């Protein structure tokens, strides 16, 4: 069984033990090893277990979809298909549980972000529809424009996929940005090549070229615009100049529509929405307050934001939210400008900013 069974049902992953997974991290950089141990090792409390289980669900589900695509892509090669038929199905997720260090730091951070957003989307009060015409027509952001209607529907469908409940044995559409998708894809190729090589004449020299070609074909067809973050950006782009209205930001967070709120802020600040979502999930609360002030949000909207983030930020208890909300008008005038400057920095620079703690207001 997996290190932690998913909360929504059993998983067929066998041979995945905490001892084996943690031992395999000996050669992984320390900071990345800590993050992997959080996902694949024993957790300390119920709330962090929810986040870890959700991250495993996203990794396992996306990996299963990629593995299935690879198996189908090599099915026309008779020797490969015959050898593949004797492999366990699924294979990649159990192998990854034993060697979690195969997941790169950027991919792991993205999966943790997906997990946190999924918990937020799943909480009561968040408006998630299936993209049905009636639901779209009643959406407050509906403007009657065909492009907006389509964008609303695509966002609702994408958010619904992430909010859906499931276990580690259920496939999930790998709607990742291309960079992360490639990381996951080549991980699956490496695992399959290692497992199938002994059954083929020529071993790795036979297996690897076929699987590599299959991987390149899958990568060429990948659509990174299908995910909720990209869908929220598309909707905001369709809404056009009207998104500069501060009332839309208040409306989005008042409805607990985190991704739409992040996309609106990102358009105004000309930064990537994933960076904004990551900031909302990880930055000090004082920095979030400064950001809200910088975009014209009120104390009420700041409280709505904290309530929305609570499923993904265990420290946001009722008492903590009241304390932060009461202190919302406080702070230096340049806090918002400082946070915006850091948010606008290149991703690798933001990583250094995280390491030396520059997010915290001075």
Outline:
The chain has helices at residues 18-23, 30-40, 46-73, 78-84, 92-98, 105-122, 133-137, 146-163, 178-196, 204-221, 228-239, 246-254, 258-269, 273-282, 285-294, 299-309, 318-326, 335-343, 347-356. It is mainly α and 362 residues long.
Succession of helices and strands: HHHHHHHHHHHHHHHHHHH
Helicity level: 55-70%
Distance between the termini: 47 Å
The number of E-state strands comes to: 0
- The tally of helices reads 19
**Estimated structural class:** mainly alpha
Shape: globular
Low-confidence stretches: 1-20
- Could you tell me the radius of gyration in angstroms? 22 Å
- Biggest sheet: strands, sense, closure? none
Q: What's the average pLDDT? A: 82
Task: Give the DSSP E fraction (strand runs of 2 or more residues).
Answer: under 5%
Can you walk me through this structure?
This protein is mainly α. 63% of the residues lie in helices and 0% in strands. It starts with 17 loop residues before the first helix and ends in a 6-residue tail after the last helix. The longest helix is centred in the N-terminal third of the chain and has 28 residues, at 46-73. It is globular.
